[in-house]
Amino acid sequence: MSSVKADFGRGLVVVGPVLVTLFILYLLYSFVASITPGVLLTAGTLEPITPGLGEYARARLAALLRVLTFVGLVVAALYGAGQLTETTTGGVLETIVDYVANRVPVIRVVYNASKTATETTLGTGETLQTPVRVETWDGLRMTAFKTGRTTPDGRVTLFLPTSPNITTGFVLEVPPAEVTELDESVEEALTRVVSAGFGDADRAADDLENTPLTVVGDLGTGGDRR
Asked: pTM score, two decimals?
């Protein structure tokens, strides 16, 4: 029975995220299709181009083309906004938006959290750099990230994110000698933090498989059990 439960659990781990991702994509597609106006692109518009398709098929195709057009316009707008921020005018506009958003109590929290998460995920702005391990107090080591900045007295400035919400955390100023760089990428370290440590499960399993075991005594025949 335990084997059946284990196989079911492994199957759920594989299939579950795929189904959730497809469901979210379907919701996003349905939402975009519902807000995209069908004024210029309708089933009637496609009739001369696709005479062999039925009315329902043309309507679905028109909805798909409207969604693709909408997504393309959004991508172009985001790219244009990104180019604009590199200019003086764009910098001034971004400063104004930050100022206004930080004046509203509720909007301020959502705005700053989403902005930090976006910058960390997409690698824009002052992003996290090398993942490190630092001993915060006796015997306890935690995962942090270099920010690329140092204090006037030569200490390294680190960001120690909380788990699983990496948009909050602590800023640490640590002597360089007490910082141990990790042999992994920023994405791997963030995965471990976001997953509350479960992101290392595969690595731990590999380490166990490669670790030799030594049998000290035969417990079944009355050997030494100490």
From this structure: 0.45
